[in-house]
């Protein structure tokens, strides 16, 4: 489970970075050279998602919960905006949903 969670966190960081760098170019007027590492980060994101051994739909659904949690950390640590109680409540619900999907007993 720790390996899966670590993989999800790395995947979320790659996706967020891959979207954040073009955002800096488009919204903040930063260098277009940011698009290159952004594209690499998005390719890394897709590759990381492919490393999970379970069905793709289940991976995407459960990954979404981890993505929400990592995005809230990004909001706080990178954007400098402290998440509200409502942000934290919503993130907790998303993570609970991820846990239900990933930890549910499965029959072969």
Short description:
With 108 residues, the chain is mainly alpha-helical. It has 4 helices and no strands.
Please outline the helices and strands:
Blueprint (H helix, E strand, L loop, with lengths): L1 H27 L6 H16 L5 H22 L7 H19 L5
Helix pairs in contact: 1-2, 1-3, 3-4
Tell me what you see in this structure.
It contains four helices and no strands. The two termini are 19 Å apart. The protein has one domain. With 108 residues, it is mainly α. It has helices spanning 2-28, 35-50, 56-77, 85-103. Helix 3 packs antiparallel against helix 4. The model has no long low-confidence stretch (mean pLDDT 90).
Q: Classify the helix fraction into a percent range.
A: over 70%
Largest sheet: none
Number of domains: 1
Structural class: mainly alpha
Ranges where pLDDT stays below 50 over 5 or more residues in a row are: none
DSSP strand (E) fraction? under 5%
- N- and C-termini, Cα separation: 19 Å
Q: How many individual helices?
A: 4
Give the overall shape, derived from the CA principal axes: flat
Can you give the mean pLDDT?
90
Order of helices and strands: HHHH
SS elements, strand count: 0
Keywords for this structure?
108 residues, flat
